[in-house]
Each structure stands twice: as structure tokens, then as C-alpha cells.
Amino acid sequence: MEDISDVKIVPCEKSRFIKPLRMLFKQNGREKIWDAMEVHDSVVILIFNKTRNVFVFVKQFRPAVYLSRSKITEENGSRHIKASENPPNLGVTYELCAGIVDKDIGNQRIAQEEVMEECGYEVPLENIEPVTSYRSGVGATGALQNLYYAEVTDKMRVGTGGGVAEEGELIDVVEIPLCDGKSFITDQNYSKPVAMMYALMWFFDVKAKHYTNSNKL
Amino acid sequence: MEDISDVKIVPCEKSRFIKPLRMLFKQNGREKIWDAMEVHDSVVILIFNKTRNVFVFVKQFRPAVYLSRSKITEENGSRHIKASENPPNLGVTYELCAGIVDKDIGNQRIAQEEVMEECGYEVPLENIEPVTSYRSGVGATGALQNLYYAEVTDKMRVGTGGGVAEEGELIDVVEIPLCDGKSFITDQNYSKPVAMMYALMWFFDVKAKHYTNSNKL
Question: Does any CB of chain B come closer than 8 Å to the CB of residue A186?
């Protein structure tokens, strides 16, 4: 995953993924302009394997995070990032299993599919428990993210996960023991989005007491 | 704030705010392309007024959220949103006081300035307590967001806040009582980003016990 090389930054004229639009409106009679992007709503799933009391997360190289943490070199009018000076693990993040809402089959079923694709667990739909929803962005994007909780067992693990190879996904499944979950939340050695931190706080508030070694927390 | 009208969606050719770029790289020898945007790192501040045991938040109309929750009407080749059918409060969010890191004065000082500009509290720098950091995005953006905690008193309130009028900011300061904080986190009547939900979970985990009526929680 972390074998990254030949990193170039080039102009992005027509993107399939980033489609800016401009919203013109009046607020309290005053004309305003706001540039935004249309993005899909999404689902994220906090997975807990109760056979071995571990959280199941995904780990991947995120170009936008690498970009944000790297020094961009400008040479002869072109821009690039030297992997020798900016170690690729700068772009590696730990995240909840996740997916976008790009089909009309219900968010719970999308969550179920992502748990299978990314983490290899075949989970009954009734094990995909809705937790809450919130805005995944409020500035350039404003889509809804729906958080689910999935309790799984080793018996449900029927595949290796790792994402859809044809889509170029390269995802590692990682396990964090229950007893390390709380310190993981704020451990700055693991780059992560805040949704994962919220999900874990929710778990320790609501769910932890149901699992056998929760009294050690 | 919620007097919104004449909402049009137009193409966004050259944006000052959304600047896509394309990153070309090799991962495990395979060529990959990722479209991303460069965005500033940011600060967010959970403000607690201990004189009256209330959280101090900001409330604003967010065009991208409104867009995400509205039906876009296409007529004669132009796109618009009918405010009569899509009430503007769809775009109103509750958020932590926040700002972008666009100057080199230290994040704590930027946080201090935002607390003054948006909420009207003049807070000593030593009251701006670092909590943690995380990625504000992992897909199209990957910037760092730094969370702070600021304990304030009524005596520190020297202005009305509301943002910088010249920049078109129109922000309401809202107070949520400590005793309502926990139910506020998952109350779907208040549209909010997950960073605010994490910050409140952190408060109830770490800080609440220090305040007088925490035993009622």
C-alpha cells in the first residue's frame, strides 16, 4: 500500500469527481455568491467483532491527505512531491468502513455491502444498526453521512475484504483491540477523520458495557 | 438569517475557493489518478460559559447544506431552487466557532481571534486549551482540523460576535444549556457537523465533572 512513487500535481480541468457549481442567492436582501460541490451522501459503519473483542477498521493511502501533509516541489514549471522527502505513510489514514449512497437500495443495505467489500464480513441486515446522522461538510460540501454500528463474529468473515480491485481500491483491514480503543481515539500516530472518533466515543458511552471485558476499561 | 430568495445554480468555471488539482502517482507499481482540492487547515473551538453553564455555538445558513437538502428545479436550461418549496432553514446548521489557518500567528491565537469575531468573547490565550487534531476530510480534501476548548465567563463577553460583516458573514450566537448538551448531540432537529458531536462527547467524558450541575446529567 505504501509503495508510492512518481507523484505529480497537474491541472484538473474536467474532473469526474470534483464538480464545482456556483450558488447565487439573496440573504436578507443582500446578494451573495457561494461556490460548492455536489457530493453523494454516505454511510460509515463502526464494526465490532465480538468473537475476539476487536474493532474492525480500514487503512488506506489517501492522496488528499498526503498532499496536505507534504511539501510540493516546483521545478521547471511542474509540481511534484518527492516521496523520498515525504514518506508515503503521511497519507495513510485509519477510517471506518464506508461508502457513498449512489444507488437506491436503502442506506442499510449499502452499509451491508460495504462491510462485505471492504472488510469481508457477511452480516445479516438486522445487525446493521442505525446510530445517527450528521453533515459530512458545511463549507464546500454539505452532504449527509449516516453512521451505523455492526456487531460481527469470526463466523461471518467469508472474504478478505480489501475493496473492489477493479475500481483500484487498495484497502487493508486492521483490528484494534477493545482495550486499546479509547487511547486510539486521540492517538496522533493514527491519522483519522473525526467521524471515527465520534463513533468510538459513542461505543464507549452506549455499547462497551455489553461486552465481556468492558469492566477493564 | 433565514430570509433567502432568488436561488440560482450556475456553472462555476474559475472559483477563488474551489481549486481542484489532479495528483498522478504510482501505487505498488500501478498508475493512479486522484482529483483533490487544496484547502486550509482549520481550528474549531468548543466554548463553555461557566457563569451560566451554557455551551456557546454558532448558527448560520450554509449554502452547500441547503443545496444538498433541496430539490433543484430545471427550467428553460437554467437551474434554481424554489425557496417556497425548500424552506431556507434546511440550510441552517449549528456549529462550533471555527476559522481557517490562513496566517502565521499560531493556531491558538487564530482560535482566540475567532472566539472574539464570531462569539464576542475576549478570552486570554491560556484559556484556549488544545484538545486534539484530526483530518477534516479524507476524500477530496485532507486538511487538519485542530480542536480547542475555551472556558469563558460573562465578563469576557465584550462584543456581540456575528462574524465579519465586510466578509458577508452572518452568524448567530446560540447558547445550549449544559443539561441539554447530551441530547443535543444526536437531536436530528439540529443539523450539525460531526466534529461538534465529538467535541461534546469529549466534554462529557473529561470536563463535565468540573462544573457545578454535572451531577444532574
Answer: yes
- Phi first, then psi, for residue A204 (nearest 5°) are -70, -25
**Helix segments in chain B, DSSP class H:** 63-69, 107-119, 181-186, 194-202
- ipTM, two decimals, is 0.94
Longest dimension (CA), chain B: 61
Please report the residues numbered 6 through 25 in chain B whose beta carbons come closer than 8 angstroms to any beta carbon of chain A. 6-12, 15-18, 20-25
* Residue B85 structural domain: 39-209
Provide the CA B124 distance to its chain's centre, in angstroms.
22
Number of folded domains in chain B? 1
Please, what is the end-to-end C-alpha distance for chain A in angstroms? Answer: 33
Report if residue A23 sits inside a domain: no
Nearest Cα residue in chain B from A25: B7
pTM of the model: 0.94
Chain B residue numbers with beta carbons less than 8 Å from the beta carbon of A78 are: none
Asked if residue B7 belongs to a domain, the reply is: no
CA count, 13 A, side-chain hemisphere, A195: 30
Instruction: Tell which A residues from 98 to 117 touch B, by Cβ distance under 8 Å.
Output: none
CATH number at residue A176: 3.90.79.10
Tens-place pLDDT, residues A87-140 = 999 999 999 999 999 999 999 999 999 999 999 999 999 999 999 999 999 999
Q: Are residues A203 and A179 in contact, defined by beta-carbon separation less than 8 angstroms?
A: no
Tell me the mean pLDDT in the region B103-107: 96
Q: Which of A21, A29, A142 sits opposite B11 (nearest CB)?
A: A21
d(CA A199, CA A111): 15
Task: Answer whether residue B19 is part of any domain.
Answer: no
Chain A residues whose CB is inside 8 A of the B29 CB are: 3
Nearest C-alpha in A relative to B16: A35
- Which of A5, A118, A135 is the best substitution to test chain B (most B C-beta atoms within 10 A)? A135
Q: Is B137 a member of any domain?
A: yes
Instruction: Spell out, as residue ranges, where chain A has pLDDT lower than 70.
Output: 212-217
